[in-house]
Amino acid sequence: MPQLLQSLNQNSASALLLLGVLVVALTVLSVLQTLAFRRMRAKWQSLLRGNDSDNLEGLLERHMTQHLENQGRLDDAHDRIQTLERKMRSAKRYVGLVRFDAFDDVGGNQSFSLAVYDEEGNGAVVTSLVGREGCRVYGKGLVNGKPERHLTAEEEMAIEQATSAKARPRISP
């Protein structure tokens, strides 16, 4: 320690000059930092204090309000889609139609078998037999894809037509 004091006494002018330069450099650096801080603070204040259209706080509040509204709409749409999907499983949307001549003495394919069922195979097959003397209509239920009574060849063809992908109508925009 005594050697350090002796060294400082011998070079006191240089040490004083060095300390002065350091004080000036730190003062300049402090002034520059203060100016930069004031510029940043002024920009921040202008963002927070602007009118309603360009106020950051107002913009964030509007954004959050709109986000909550959109989330509510999205939740409603999701619920509606789930309800529609549930209903579509029981919608009678698969249809097959086979026209034929039920009797040799009647032509023109006026008789028909119509199969209508849903995603789970529940529905009905309706057959109309047209003859010279009259018309008869028969209905047979389908439960889980199984008929409750024996099916004719035409009724089976109507069910097969309803299950084939090419029989399903394509709806294009």
Keywords:
rod-shaped, about 55% helix, 5 strands, five-stranded antiparallel beta sheet, alpha+beta, single chain, about 170 residues
Give a structural overview.
The protein has helices spanning 2-10, 12-49, 56-89, 153-163; strands at 94-100, 111-117, 123-130, 135-143, 146-147. The longest helix has 38 residues, at 12-49. The model has no long low-confidence stretch (mean pLDDT 85). It has 173 residues and is of the alpha+beta class. The chain is built from four helices and five strands. It is 53% helix and 19% strand. The termini are far apart. It has a domain at 94-167. Strands 1-2-3-4-5 form a five-stranded antiparallel β-sheet, with helices on one face.
DSSP, total strands = 5
Strand order of the largest sheet: 1-2-3-4-5
Structural class: alpha+beta
Question: What is the tally of helical segments?
Answer: 4
Q: Major sheet, described briefly?
A: 5 strands, antiparallel
Euclidean distance between termini CA atoms: 94 Å
Uncertain runs are none
Strand content: 15-25%
Mean pLDDT score, rounded? Answer: 85
- Amount of helix: 40-55%
Shape: rod-shaped
The radius of gyration computed from the alpha-carbon positions, rounded to a whole number of angstroms, is 44 Å
Report the order of strands and helices: HHHEEEEEH
